[in-house]
Amino acid sequence: MASSTNIANLVLSKPWSSSSSKALYFPLGGRVSSACSSWQISKRSSFRGISRNNNSNNSSNTICMCMPSPSQTTSSSTLPMAAPLIIRDNESLLKYLHQPLVLPHEVDDGTMRKELLEITRRELMRSISKPLEALQMMDTIQRLGLAYHFEEEINIILSEVSSKVYDDEDLMTAGLRFRLLRHNGHQITPDIFCKFLNENGKFEDSLKGDIMGLLSLYEASYLGANGEDILFEAMEFSEAQLRSSLPSLEAQLATKVSQALELPRHRRMVRLEARRFIEEYSKENGHNPDLLELAKLDYNKVQSLHQMELSEITRWWKELGLVEKLTFARDRPLECFLWTVGLLPEPKYSACRIELAKTIAILLVIDDIFDTHDGPMDELVLFTNAIRKWDLEAMEELPEYMKICYMALYNTTNEICYKILKENGWSVLPYLKSTWIDMIEGFMLEARWFNDGETPNLEEYVENGVTTAGAYMALVHLFFLIGQGVTQESVKLLMDPYPKLFSCSGRILRLWDDLGTAKVKKKKQLILQKQQRYA
């Protein structure tokens, strides 16, 4: 999931902690530097793509998490980064997670934070009469990770902006307006860029020197849909001009352009972008000090919540004891939690993150039973049949190493169903069980292909891979955990058959996963040879 990037250190490191804080580094499946400066997200972020390398002695396989000192009361706005302390395994991490996680000033700053929220809310609503100012402030708020506080105000502004025509807007404003409206689910046509075309249907040469306009156009172009050729043209034009202009740009602007070319803004993980942009925003001339202070306080507050969630997941994983019994399995609850933070970073989804991380962690172990362990076919058949039956009696036929995994899946899934039933009154076990059965049967089909020496055609492989990639199973769990919009009709649309939305995204995920993990999927050599012909 993070095998080609340096991202987790930003998710789990406090940017503003006391000088006596301890920055903890613990092993991660992928390469993560200790520089705490990179922010790129891997495009191969499927569950099964998490590295199977369990060697924790590699010093590059670390992520950073700061543990604040309970005695420090320095303001969050002026605190330096902490020096690192190396933590090399989950047990060491667990010990340090018992320490207090919240800075004392954060406990006492409730009034200040509320005041800053109200100040920002008033400023945001006052800006509605000035569209460019409103859009820029909204963009800043979103990049600082504060948008969840102002959802109502943001929707009011976007509705106002979408209902008007702006004939005199420049390229930067047009790109910003298009990106924010489309990214936030409001309708807007790419025809707003037609006025920047010449008589040949190409973008005007006069735009080549407008770097901020080109940057705005480039970011907007990534939100195009099929058939919107003008946005494809916009992407090619803006990217070419931005790359050619890089050597002559001043340092701060060159950094912005380089980061955009590396990864467009809307593809960035919210928490990673917030961590990075807080630093960038603090260096901008004319930045809003109240907004900056609010962003820092809020970042640390949410960060503390994420750390406590990670503590709970790590304790649960240790008590589960799967990797002690199944030594071949991936010991990766930390990456699983990181994925959930990327998906749902807001505080209100705390319980969802915890339960989903548990589900994904168990999925990785089951995948390894079929994939890395090379389980005998008769044992894999027994395991698949036991999952279909979903009862404890079926477990008795399993070998010992499968029993503990079966019990972990059975108990964890049933506990999730109990919590959903208790919270919302829905009995969802049949639906969650169905997704697990589909997953295991998909694993079983891949095992039969390998055992029989059969190479499926690309369509057969990818269709099965949509299921075994794990995204659909996880998102069905998440649908019920969030609990919004759950009706008989929506459940039917979600479950029977797989929606096209999941099928298309699952295909992409499957192919990216295989390209990223081909070196460690020794069991899939024949299938991957097929993949490489088409990829």
TrEMBL record:
Report whether Magnesium shows up as a keyword of the record: yes
The Gene Ontology terms for molecular function here are: magnesium ion binding; terpene synthase activity
Pfam families, alphabetized: Terpene_synth, Terpene_synth_C
Keywords from UniProt, A to Z, are: Magnesium, Metal-binding
The yes or no answer to whether the keyword Magnesium is present is yes
Determine the domain of life of the protein's source.
Answer: Eukaryota
- Gene Ontology process terms (BP): diterpenoid biosynthetic process
In what residue span(s) does the Terpene synthase metal-binding domain sit? 318-524
- The residue ranges of the Terpene synthase N-terminal domain are 118-261
Full protein name: OLC1v1025091C2
